[in-house]
Amino acid sequence: MYINAMNWSQVEEHIKKDDRCIFPLGCIEQHAHLSLGTDMILSEKIAMDAAEPLGIPVFPAMPYGLTAGFVDFPGTISLRIRTYIAFIEDILDGLYHSGFRRILIVNGHGGNAPAGVVISEWMNRNRDASVKMYDWWRAPKTMAKVLEIDSRASHASWMENFPWTRLEGVVQPQHVKDCVDLNGLARVDAGRKRERLGDGCCHGLYERPDTDMLAIWEIAVEETRAQLENDWH
Amino acid sequence: MYINAMNWSQVEEHIKKDDRCIFPLGCIEQHAHLSLGTDMILSEKIAMDAAEPLGIPVFPAMPYGLTAGFVDFPGTISLRIRTYIAFIEDILDGLYHSGFRRILIVNGHGGNAPAGVVISEWMNRNRDASVKMYDWWRAPKTMAKVLEIDSRASHASWMENFPWTRLEGVVQPQHVKDCVDLNGLARVDAGRKRERLGDGCCHGLYERPDTDMLAIWEIAVEETRAQLENDWH
Amino acid sequence: MYINAMNWSQVEEHIKKDDRCIFPLGCIEQHAHLSLGTDMILSEKIAMDAAEPLGIPVFPAMPYGLTAGFVDFPGTISLRIRTYIAFIEDILDGLYHSGFRRILIVNGHGGNAPAGVVISEWMNRNRDASVKMYDWWRAPKTMAKVLEIDSRASHASWMENFPWTRLEGVVQPQHVKDCVDLNGLARVDAGRKRERLGDGCCHGLYERPDTDMLAIWEIAVEETRAQLENDWH
Amino acid sequence: MYINAMNWSQVEEHIKKDDRCIFPLGCIEQHAHLSLGTDMILSEKIAMDAAEPLGIPVFPAMPYGLTAGFVDFPGTISLRIRTYIAFIEDILDGLYHSGFRRILIVNGHGGNAPAGVVISEWMNRNRDASVKMYDWWRAPKTMAKVLEIDSRASHASWMENFPWTRLEGVVQPQHVKDCVDLNGLARVDAGRKRERLGDGCCHGLYERPDTDMLAIWEIAVEETRAQLENDWH
Amino acid sequence: MYINAMNWSQVEEHIKKDDRCIFPLGCIEQHAHLSLGTDMILSEKIAMDAAEPLGIPVFPAMPYGLTAGFVDFPGTISLRIRTYIAFIEDILDGLYHSGFRRILIVNGHGGNAPAGVVISEWMNRNRDASVKMYDWWRAPKTMAKVLEIDSRASHASWMENFPWTRLEGVVQPQHVKDCVDLNGLARVDAGRKRERLGDGCCHGLYERPDTDMLAIWEIAVEETRAQLENDWH
Amino acid sequence: MYINAMNWSQVEEHIKKDDRCIFPLGCIEQHAHLSLGTDMILSEKIAMDAAEPLGIPVFPAMPYGLTAGFVDFPGTISLRIRTYIAFIEDILDGLYHSGFRRILIVNGHGGNAPAGVVISEWMNRNRDASVKMYDWWRAPKTMAKVLEIDSRASHASWMENFPWTRLEGVVQPQHVKDCVDLNGLARVDAGRKRERLGDGCCHGLYERPDTDMLAIWEIAVEETRAQLENDWH
């Protein structure tokens, strides 16, 4: 249940019975021809869809994340890592203070990975909590489905092109983009990264039929929901 | 235009013609019987409604803000001030790096006021930019309309009860809440604050007719839009 | 009692009987033709005068505060907000460790307002303490007296021109300064602020008879003393 | 060439001809029956062996890294992530100020991965530099060799048991350890992690013949050296 | 000239002719039977007396410093070192922005020594400035005079007992205090330090005739003045 | 015993009987014609030699320290003081969490002195621990021996020229370097410092017979060992 659809006394009542919640992590960064908010949109929606039948509160996605490499693409906003770790600490402290003890962080952006280190540090100070850092798009079953459909998949390619991340009136390229040299991106600044990336997509087709996309989504929702239901502590 | 409805090359094109953008600040905190997301919902919506005819990009609202005083109401999440100032710095750096030079920060939560200090420091390092910290709900015309309707108005009272912040199935109290002692709240911790605040509302009725609310909204949208159109630099 | 007139064992004895103390906040910043130390001088003196008959310890004023907007006026020193919040935290920790539980922060500079957020956070970690952030010059009775005398009053105008803030040999302008556009100051850097502010005064006459000033001071001392005597916890 | 075998004027001369250097990252953490310094020993030695014929300066390994998850195993020292990112920034600033522009960071510990984010941020401020974050043990050829020998390999298993990381007088277990549940480790604090990990090894045999180990080492040295020789900028 | 006796335009005029200023560092900490403000009082007064005939601006002393070791003596306030270094950076930035290029930091408290490291870092970023960290009481001639009078001298002993640091009505002990074991203090927390220190004095008599004290002061003023006059850059 | 020669369970066993350990602090900085790693080499070796007969664990030296003044000599790496204090805090927290309660910090570099302030703060939070900051080269007996041999001794002079810090193939100058003006170094940036320092040595001969050096070393080892054996808490 979206936290914005609750008031504080409803949350208080809920926690008495169930100490689970979800916190989605997004990023506002270039996704080639797709929405700048792709990672935020997907992490929040997968969280909502997974939580819906369970009634677990879903906090608003953190829109902004770590994406220093893409800041030369306008519209991309990167937090400094020192800011981000402070933010993650505060969120965990706040959820804990509210009474939550089992927290699923649904992450929509690979670059946010240092949050996992913060979680590890934080749990040492809050030893009765359990926190999962969950990259929904590369969970085993979800990624297996992606690869089954088309292994040429990457950042900003078809695998992120859902009905809710594509933009009205924007026509996607029809070719298969060659795989960019990922090591060549990692060792240089955002300027050279932009030059080497062109439109921002890393590899593959830019769109596939919605039957493919919805099949992936269905698996991803189930796999995320299983994280809520099983294997805490 | 919501940034999530744009891709990076659209932003790049836009900035060539117009270097304005909007960044809304919210807060997830107790609002008595209303949504925990009230401040986030209102700041993002007022920004969207004001920007719409102008085509100015609106970045996703920062959901989380400064609300240490309310953390004993479950569901309330407060960032530490040190985290928040780092966050505001990063956002301004990111918007500037993208090319924006006139930035309207539409703030929906009084507690976020230290952002104004950060802006002041930041502009000294970026002297060709102009940044407005704009508390939409207490802009002169908007507040005058509120007071004209009913001066017994406060945090979590009728003046924040819009069709988009009230919750389905939640019945609002029908009495006028006496004004709490605000100084008595300020000098104590969150525990004593909660005791003294009861349901979380500070003063006044809990709801008023939508004709009142929409009249306020209309004025607020116009007043916010005027901020976008006039008096930069 | 000024802390510099005490030694540690006297403080230890005092706290056994009374856990109150005062900490004044100042700022070294342009005050047009008045002393750069105006805010420090006034906050420390009002604290001393208010505390005197009560024997409550007054710690030395923190001379430096938050004034990023005025740094292009030479002699103005602004701390970064991140430094300032760390400083306020340390002072509160130190006073608490000494044994003080009721702390009156007498603030002489509007720009120091983020200290209030730090206090709010700090009290959540020290729930048996009570801390008041008190802007002496805009307390209700004091401000009422100012407005009664002359409502054209502002930063660096007559209302800050006391016998202890004016400078020997400096002649004050004799005209009424028109009110500067405060919104126009807030949205720009310190350079444009200085251009728009001229001599640094915001509005009003530069001096008034000492009978006016001493009448204000008397009320302010009483109103500050009442803060020490009443309404803790 | 080890930097400890050079003086400052030799470094100055060297940089005039070659702006490459190596900085190894280690960690002091439990490695089951192996040395607590395993990651430091291996990253520094692989760096030295790779650099030797090229005469490239190798700075002393940073012994300490990010290992919050293992702190309940005595002897393990974990830096906070906020400290670590500051450290990495300082080292890069220092190497750059000395004149180095091509920097190979040879990392010996998976948990140090956030250094990669710091590098990405840092290169945006130093756009004429190129920095590689290189996890020597999972470089493609090295890892292929490991898996070819025995795919049951993990933290503190045989794959880290080199002549220079094993301890005199310590007898290694002779069985194959079952694979621990890595997700089950990630979601809990260091106390539960220790309970679930037993001796600290994650999976596999504890030792294999030195012919295997030296074959891996030889490939790893060559693969690391290739990083020094090729594909900068 | 005390900065509180100047306004901004006077500072602006002054800097056009002379880019020197003084910034005194104090500390509020136990000084046995003497004022808690001893270090602040002495550093500000020595600065004022030295600067007086030269007309060099003296900024208000920073009252608070680093004294973690004495916090178990009530009235002692210690800043964290991380706060203090940020504070020193900000002050230097502020003085530099005002136009000062030769800055004498007159330090009254040995524990503030890390300021010297901050100065060293800061000068690398501001290479046209010259900053002296000057411990007035242990400058060669001043300390020689102290030792000539009575070599049994220490923190809170007679050597800090000036007419302006002793307290009305407080009778000083008349014996010579044996020297405490300074290494024994350094290796333990503030609680054990207090136990071992008794009244807080480290060694020696508690008072000497004012002829001695004024002789020391005269030398110290001259020696401090020489720092202002000679050997910049 | 070098910690790299132990595994975690050996440390655990050791702490049950003896809660002492050693942590050496070094610095990578210019030492004229000697190794850039001189301070790291000496602090780690003196720690190892002192601890050897006692079986006390020696953690790997922190190679990097505070040396802002020498950064214009290539190969010198200086951490920012803010980073360094965070590092020292983390190390102490880590050693404490492992179970150590008596910690000898063997420091090889004068510039690292702010670590002492961090220790003082840290012990207030960990009041059952005892931590010594020990500058081995200026301990009383060691320094007396140095001065007995040749009082013209300084940074990078003969007194740091041991068989394990001198470099193969580097011929040392044969003259006595005049004493540089140390105050003249302290008040300027790293650029002017380099100009004034020439080769980096401050005063004295560059080498002396090994009989002298080994006599110093023998005394230093014994004096350091006595720190381990005596006077804790």
TrEMBL record, chains A, B, C, D, E, F:
Domain of life according to the entry: Bacteria
Gene Ontology molecular function terms on file: hydrolase activity, acting on carbon-nitrogen (but not peptide) bonds, in linear amides; metal ion binding
Similarity-based family: Belongs to the creatininase superfamily.
The protein's name in its UniProt record: Creatininase
Lineage summary: Bacteria, Pseudomonadati, Pseudomonadota, Alphaproteobacteria, Hyphomicrobiales
BP-aspect Gene Ontology terms: riboflavin biosynthetic process
Keyword set, alphabetical order: Hydrolase, Metal-binding, Zinc
Cofactor(s), by name: Zn(2+)
InterPro entries on file: Creatininase-like_sf, Creatininase/forma_Hydrolase
Organism of this sequence: Phyllobacterium myrsinacearum
Signal peptide start and end residues: none
Pfam families per UniProt: Creatininase
